[in-house]
Amino acid sequence: MTTAESSTAESSTVTTVNVLIADDDPLVRVGLSVMLGGAGNLRVVAEAGDGAEAIRLARQHRPDVVLMDIRMPVMDGLTATETLRAMSDAPEVLVLTTFDADHYVLRALRAGAAGFALKDTPPPEIVAAIHRVAQGHPVLSPTVTQRLIDQVVSLQDHARRRQEAEAQLALLNDRERAVALAIGQGKANAEIGAALYLGVSTVKTHVSNILTKLGLNNRVQVALLVHDAGQLANDR
Fold first, then answer.
1. Which pLDDT belongs to residue 198?
2. Is 154-235 a CATH 3.30.470.20 domain?
């Protein structure tokens, strides 16, 4: 997990973020609830012990962010993430894991999760990560994304994904592809604008068009797509 990008991301007024915790370990839920409750500008609105309960409680409480464990009974966090992100008023999902190379994490990102945090991450960083995803910013650096893909995707699957990713990127015009590449490099909107000589509002419009054309939920998925297409490797 990284919070370095926050220095370049657009500033916004800090407001109370409603959080739902989904983890099958009651001790983990209690620990997270106590920790987040002390943050002042975060409010835990519900706790779930499995994915199905997380979906039910999310519909009831409408949290801004769901802290989602992956391995849970009844319904795992991956299936729950897919369901939550398909909701009309979808909460952001921050995956909690004990493994930074867990293949389920990569699948969760493809399902629309905004990023992941290790369970042993220092509390201030988890709080910062929650605020970032609540503001629509990913908490996954291109370096971590590349390491995940390199560790869990087979060569055959990688080749297939590359073909599919190249076909998707071909749907974009030249300017949109340049913006998508910059997103894959981890650049914030202001940095993209400076590099491409565009206003921030114009960059935001391009990002919105990219998400719509490619049927994606967030910038993390754009970064994964750019990596799958081999564009980051070509740029280095």
1. 95
2. no
